[in-house]
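Data's thin. Show one?
=====
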Amino acid sequence: MRVSQRIPEDIRALLKAIGRLAQHQRVRAYAVGGCVRDWLLGTSSATDLDVTVEGDGVALADAIARDFGGSVEPHPPFGTATVVVTHPRPRLRIDVATCRKETYAKPAAYPQVVAGTLRDDLARRDFTINAMALALAPRAFGRLIDPFHGAQDLRLKRLRILHPGSFMDDPSRILRGIRFAQRFGLRWERRTQRASREDIAAGALGWLNAGRLRKERELMAREPNPRACVQQLDALLQRGAKGPRA
């Protein structure tokens, strides 16, 4: 499946250029995450792009900044870099990362990161709708990589985690799920909803440090309908307090 025609023309030209730069460096680059989800939904207002690289992400970020006259802020220990370019759009931010695999030593801990494949990188994400990638290589440009059937979940208006322990790994995903469900009109998939209730009942939200919790609450307040988000959170907390359903 190719979705390149759903990408705004100016962004499409930029991504094609990034694909050519990656090919020159003999690495594979992909647009990933929320931007891919939004293009599938027909939304073109994204101001940030996420690019993941099977190879050296920081080196590709340097090349993007050089070719587009932007600034780059590298984070070598994490294999990531942030590039800000002035065209095709003012102050367009591109987060570039080396594909990585994450493991969690204990619930709600910060993940331990090692280099990985594209599939590893998609498998570490929160929901299937955010676990899709778009190939940027010239010969494959626009091809959708969707190992967890996120596009189908979007069509079905369904919010689904990638594995049963997802909320235990990172309880803030429960709060992000509330935001996505309200913003896109999604219903929680049955096992996903049950996992959220069970993990809330186990006290998972209380394991988050104050900074992460504050950030998620601030993001929730910026949603188009923050009151609906708070109401859904209250409903989940009440159901979680009653314990998981049999």
Notes: The first helix runs from residue 9 to 24. Residues 4-152 form a domain with the Beta Polymerase; domain 2 fold (CATH 3.30.460.10). The CA atoms of residues 57 and 98 lie 4 Å apart. The chain has two domains: 4-152, 157-241.
